[in-house]
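dumping this here before i forget
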Amino acid sequence: MCRPSLVHPAPIRRLRDLTRYRRTLVRERTREKSRLEKVLEDAQIKLDSVITDLLGVSGREMLDAMIAGERNPQVLAQMARGPMRAKLTRLRDALAGHFDDHHALLCATMLRRIDTLSGDIAALDSVIAHHCQPYADVVQRLDEIPGIGTRSAEELIAEIGLDMTVFPTAAHLVSWAKFAPIDRQSAGTRKGGSTGKGNPWLAATLGEVVVGLSRTNTFLGDRYRRLARRRGKKRALVAVGNSVLTILWHLLSEPESRFHDLGADYYQSQINTRRRQRDLIRQLEHLTGQAVVLRATA
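structure:
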């Protein structure tokens, strides 16, 4: 299937520039956080094993105190807030390292960088929200899809656009995005085919959407888990990303349409009885190494 020429109108192109730059800053902030964790690891400070968000209220207060010169694990652990206070013993052990002035200098520099990036990202969030005001209804409808939040919806609009007439069918959109893997067969042997290289920015957003979906009790969440068990996580990600793009095409093609989740049990409730029977027989034969013969019960 050929790739259609996709040139977005100027407002969408500007939105795309903004969302891509925001993602670049988010990636840089993530890298800076990783550097911070490595410095703490070098100092034998294991806060990340106790605190989920190292830069949350409790974690940030402890880091600022260590940078300011406080190194006593007992004092630092007492800075825990809320439910974190139930982990005081673990916090004291995690804070009993050899954090010194060298580590303090590095951590202070990294935290300033993280704060600057966070401020820039927040500013871009406001600008992007302003640019998306004409598309508020579309953002809201996309936000109804599990796994897609406001930020993901903004990025999807920026990368795909709103005019679906350039894609005659949903399959054209999936093919353009390179989320349609090619199955190659030769002499009866099936060879896995890659999807090819598509839009990396769109792929990154879809990847995050699918990861979010995998944790939900929805039709797409169940589909991901079912495919991941049978075909592996990478193939499941591509398959569910394919489904998300198909849903997006229909929502953007039909302005009045809304997303409706089929439910996590849809597949099981709709599956053909004979097909289910055949699959179970195959599984049992695979496990036992013996042929399975069905007999009518009394």
